[in-house]
Automatic annotation (TrEMBL):
Binding positions for GTP per the UniProt entry: 58-61, 86-87, 130-135, 174
Any single GO BP term: translation
Gene name per UniProt: ylqF
Matches recorded under InterPro entries: G_CP_dom, GTP-bd, GTP-bd_ortho_bundle_sf, GTP-bd_ribosome_bgen, GTPase_MTG1, P-loop_NTPase
CP-type G domain: residues covered: 10-178
Pfam families given in the database record: MMR_HSR1
UniProt protein name: Ribosome biogenesis GTPase A
UniProt keyword list: Cytoplasm, GTP-binding, Nucleotide-binding
Gene Ontology MF terms: GTP binding; GTPase activity
Keyword Cytoplasm included in the entry's annotation: yes
Keyword Nucleotide-binding on entry: yes
PROSITE patterns, A to Z: G_CP (PS51721)
Amino acid sequence: MHFQWYPGHMTKAKRMMQENIKLIDLVIELVDARIPMSSRNPDIDELGKNKARMVLLNKADLAEDKWNDAWAEYFKGQGYSVVKVNSKKGGGLKSIQNVIQEACKEKMERDRKRGILNRPVRAMVVGIPNVGKSTFINSLAGKAAAKTGNKPGVTKGKQWIRLNKQVELLDTPGILWPKFEDQAVGLRLALIGSIKDEILQTEELAAEAITFMNTYYSGVLEEKYALESSADPYVVLERIAQSRHCLLKGSGLDTEKAAMLMLDDFRSGRLGRLTLEYPAEGEK
Ligand code: G4P
């Protein structure tokens, strides 16, 4: 399967990031907890150098918790502050402010020594498309607004969301591009639904998902769709079509529909919490 990318907005997004990053002290990088490596961007280290750094394992609710913990350790080992979050439901958000302050301790100390008091830490959320940046900002802003009684501003230009006396967050996230030249990364992004389905062959992608399930989560598909196992993913797809009554108008099985249904279950957690990559590959 070949993944093609249309990086038309890439240059513009990168320029905006470069401009905004000058204003901030802390980079809050969101990654997808199911694929913490593939959902990162190779430029972030260059863009975020000399800044305090934080990694948020977002969509932690969709990934296996033991692997979330393993990834958290991995990133901590690399010097990042890490939090597991579910931006949709608000899980993990409570601890964010403390971790932000912890991540910026050095900067605050420097400010204090220079006699700069009460200057808030300025943070920006960055990440690849679909990783949950807007959801995260909205959840955090909602909480902060409720706490301080602030109303969302309507003025144009940059908006800062005041999380507390010490921390402000830029309301527009920085969009980063994934490592689109790497086909294995492309496949994982497609599996979790980060790449638009129109440019992919659904059945081929579902076959990849089935092979992954057979390898790492054996028995799950059989139980979910009440079917007999097979090592051939296309046979499994037909069996899913049978079991879910995905039928073509005349006669025959609608395996395309079955593929969409299966991928939807895969992405939304209905096949359970799934982790697609591990801190040390192969050591699952
Ligand atoms: P972006 O700004 O980085 O592009 O991402 P965005 O916030 O638009 O989120 C992309 C999708 O991921 C949304 O789903 C959002 O609800 C979902 N999402 C974000 N954070 C989490 C999380 O922690 N857990 C889970 N399970 N989902 C999360 P959508 O399908 O586009 O919208 P909707 O169906 O939720 O309305």
